[in-house]
Amino acid sequence: MTVRHRARAVVPLLALSVLAAGCSQEPGQDATDLVADAQARDYRDGQAEAQRVRQANRALPSPSAGVVEIDGINGALTSEEVAAFSRSGTSTQVQVASRGEDAAFASLCAGEIDVVDSTRAIAPAELEACRSVGLDVVQLQVASDAVVVAIKNETDVGGDCLSTQQVREVYRAGSPVTSWAQLGGGYDDVPLAVAGPNRENNAFQFFGRTVLDAPDPSLINLRSDYRTFDTDQGSRLFVVGRERDEDLALKLRDRARERDLAKSRVEEQRQVVDDARAEVEVAVAEVEKGVRDQRPADQQAADRERVVRAEQALARAQAELSVLTREKDAVVTRYDAAADARARVQRTRGHVGYFLFSYYELFEDQLRPFEVTDPDGERNCIFPSQRTITSGEYPLSRRLLLTTTTRSMERSEVADFLLHYLDRASEAAVDAQLVALSQAEIERQKDWVSGREAPDLVTADETPATEEPAAPTRPAEPAR
Fold it and tell me: Which is deepest, 114, 209, 256, 308, by most CB within 10 Å?
């Protein structure tokens, strides 16, 4: 139930509670009077709370003129955008701290800073702290980021949707998963091998925090057989194999025929050599027999000529066998290369890696991403796309946020800085290999900052479920 809905529900709830307690009402006092009294008390309490909030708001520290205070994580875009704003010729000083999101939101709600740089939204308790001192919270999004878990395109391991818990189970330190079938859900019994970037890569840090719940990710958070690569290309080739292997594997059938034909020719030529060698032996025997038998001279000459011809034929046959053997060896080598390539291609079927979404987009013809669902609630299997990542629907995504207050946005120096940031956000996101927002969304947020349109305030509905106090109502008119 939203705050507005709860506010409208106050009167009937009060009436029911009063009627239920009707036996304790004073003599001569009906239920309508009790409701009116309760509403009057509620209104007085609301007025007192409003007065307390106004006093707390007036007690907030005054901001320094010409200074914009930012705190949080000092994310992927902020340092460069602060530097670019300073280079624009502005006299405004932008002071950036990086004490973390928790401390930054506390400072925002204490009126000490203007902007929180974060990858998470304000929490319910933090939002209530801001509201308790009269600060309305506005959240701006400047980019998004996501990791994609992918196998080779046009391959299949028996499923295309993983829960975040399954992704964690595949990669975590000590994981026993060596076959896709161990994940359940109908996955095939295919050997599973994992890879990804080293810790210098932004994807490594993001994946470690988002999937493995590691505040400062390192290799000890990953399984011992995790293959690390210095480049995204290395991870991609581990998953999809090399194009040359694909080409060679496609030639395997033709090369098998070439190999069999070459082997057949060698075997046939070996028979020719054996026959030629046998003829030499017969011819030599005839010469010897002619000598023993004292054949005529011309007959013995003919016998010797036969030996010469037989030896020449044997030499030619042996030379041809050598040529055919070399050709066969070359063909067998080419066949073996194609067979090895096919084996490597087949092994990639179970290989899986993770990549920043911006890198996946460049090679989406080679990579097949898994849909991802949260382990709790409905199995919704969200496909990674510009839309689902920007909206935050895709579970392995994060939004780069600037959270401020209407109080800070009314300051010209803060508004100027935020407008400058938003103007450059799309181009900066692309340069940083992040997911850029649509121009329409950028313009909408600029309208908030410039005052051309009332901003969407962060409400309890945009944070995890929490109970909110009901809004005060005016007392009913007394019964006449």
Answer: 114
